[in-house]
Amino acid sequence: MIRKTGSLLCALVLFTCSPNLYSAQKSDTAREKVRTYFNRLVADSGAHGAELRMFLNLMPKGGDLHQHFTGTTYAETYLDFIKKENSWISKKDFSVITPRDTAKLPDTLSVDKLRSDNKMLSDFSMVWSDKDFSNHYHDQNAPDVQFFGTFANFSTILKYDGALYTEGLKILKNRAKLENVQYIEQMFISPGYKRKDARFDDLCRKSIADKNIPELHRTFQDFVSVVRADALYQKAVPGYLKQVKTCADAVNDESFTLRFQSYVSRNDSPAEVFSALYTAFCEADTSDLVVGVNIVNAENSPVAMSDYSLHMQMFRYMKELFPGVKTAMHAGELTIGMVRPEDLTFHINEAVMVALADRIGHGVDIGYEVNAPELLAYMREKKIPVEINLTSNEFILGVKDGQHPFRLYLDQGVPVVLTSDDEGVSRNNLTDDYLHMVQRYGITYDSLREIAGNSIRYSFLKESEKSQQLVNLDKRFAEFEARMARMIANASREGGKKRTTNR
Ligand SMILES: [Zn+2]
User: Which of 12, 262, 446, 481 has the most CB atoms less than 10 A away?
Assistant: First the structure.
């Protein structure tokens, strides 16, 4: 009894003397209200889509760790860029014609002319994005061809004037802030160097076919010397880092942080992939702004499929040369029918076990991998997260709802982050993917907070930067929960009044 009174007194003293404790208790109460409210919405998520969207739009989402600059920029922004650069659109295929290519001028349209014609503007949008792909009858590409085909259009105008990159990033930053994203780790531009070498290609493919990994790594080593001696390579790294710094300086402030990943295309020749990869690792090793390296492009294309194991060995070699450089790797962005069944059995495994990926992008075909249970356990133990891209997987692969392995990863304890991939091509935003996640997989509020926090915890920021970002995220959550709690309380009061009046 005495002890009870003592502890009650202590609690009272602590409560009145410690403002921090008081505000922590206040925010706990707000969180409890928000938790109850959110879990109630999710229980009948079909009827509460608009309310959930509002909630998720306002909710802090931490970071977006899987975003491609060119695919995230909307077609409308590209049109602004084309107009600004006094360039045109080809009447034939809607590609960009810059003043450097005056031979094509007779077959072009101005941006103003295009915008004044609804039919042409609609056709343009269907070539430059997934817009209206499936809501009316028209000749269609296969979804993967449509999606990846859009990228060929973007680079012409961006390369015409490098300043457009900064302009584009400012737009993406504003969009991120509007949906409460505080950090972006972006696949921005490729490393700026690659070289062809048919002999290297032959040697690599022979060593892989013979499973002679020591010989393969000797071939790599010799080619590093060739790359390093190339004057173009020597210019590429400082040029890349200068551009990255200019862009980062233009957008980074106390409310928003941007970091970059350099990347290679998996559809290039082995020599091009290797030389670009070496350059990308050098860039990431040199600059704090370039926090990782990735491999991109259609995983089901013939070159990507036949050279897959070779690419994983290249990453392994680079990881040994540059142990401090982190890698996020597109792997398992495949499904049944797209490739042969046996081709679905090993990509994520090799990305994790051979290439030593720090994060996996997509990971959709995990259910087809021969050693899936052991691989999932390994990813859980080693804390190798998977970047989930629901909208892009639904469009490119046709994989959605219960066919998507989101639940499998979550239930097996593999860290999950939700990412946007290519908002401009998909014509969505990160909030939209959060809504899909909540409506399809019945996520609780605590899981939602955990997933948002993962986007900082598993980012490639330095530990001190992560701590700072996590403090910032906690603060944003406290503000968000207080705001939602006020809304919930007001709605209950109004609801109460109405019930009284009706009676
Ligand atoms: Zn991607």
Answer: 262
281 and 307 in a single domain? The answer is yes
- Provide the residue-wise pLDDT of the chain in tens; the chain has 503 residues: 334 334 444 444 444 445 555 666 666 799 999 999 999 999 998 899 999 999 999 999 999 999 999 999 999 999 999 999 899 998 888 898 888 877 667 788 999 998 999 988 988 888 888 887 777 777 778 888 777 777 778 788 888 888 899 999 999 999 999 999 999 999 999 999 999 999 999 999 999 999 999 999 999 999 999 999 999 999 999 999 999 999 999 999 999 999 999 999 999 999 999 999 999 999 999 999 999 999 999 999 999 999 999 999 999 999 999 999 999 999 999 999 999 999 999 999 999 999 999 999 999 999 999 999 999 999 999 999 999 999 999 999 999 999 999 999 999 999 999 999 999 988 999 999 999 999 999 899 999 999 999 999 999 999 999 999 999 999 999 999 999 999 999 887 776 666 555 54
Residue 188 phi, psi (nearest 5): -100, -75
Distance of CA 388 from the midpoint of ligand 1 (Å): 10
- Residues lining ion ligand 1 (Cβ < 5 A) are 421
Query: 35 CA to middle of ligand 1, Å?
Result: 32
Same structural domain for residues 275 and 146?
no
Instruction: Count the helix, strand and coil residues of the chain and give each as a percent rounded to the nearest 5.
Output: 65, 10, 25
Q: Are residues 149 and 229 in the same domain?
A: no
User: How far is the centre of ligand 1, averaged over its atoms, from the C-alpha of 66 (Å)?
Assistant: 6
pTM of the model: 0.90
Interval between CA 267 and ligand 1 midpoint (Å): 14
Question: 305 and 432 share a domain?
Answer: yes
For residue 348 the two structure tokens come to: 């994520």
What amino acid occupies position 451? I
Q: How far is the CA of 473 from the centre of ligand 1 (A)?
A: 25
Boundary (domain end) residue, out of 122, 154, 186: 154
Instruction: Compute, in angstroms, the gap from residue 329 CA to the centroid of ligand 1.
Output: 9
Q: How far is CA 311 from CA 67, 167, 215, 271, 342, in A?
A: 22, 34, 15, 11, 18
Does residue 191 fall inside a structural domain? yes
CATH code of the domain containing 443:
3.20.20.140
Tell me: do 311 and 369 sit in the same domain: yes
Q: What's the gap in Å between 481 CA and the centre of ligand 1?
A: 32
The phi and psi torsions of 12 (rounded to 5 degrees) equal -65, -45
Q: Note down the domain range covering 119.
A: 73-154
Distance 187 CA to ligand 1 centre (A): 8
Within a domain: residue 190? Answer: yes
Within a domain: residue 499? no
Checking phi first, is residue 62 left (phi over 0); if not, alpha (psi -120 to 50) or beta? left
Q: Is 313 a member of any domain? A: yes
Ligand 1 center from residue 320 Cα (angstroms): 25
Whether residues 146 and 204 share a domain: the answer is no
Strand, helix or coil for residue 61: coil
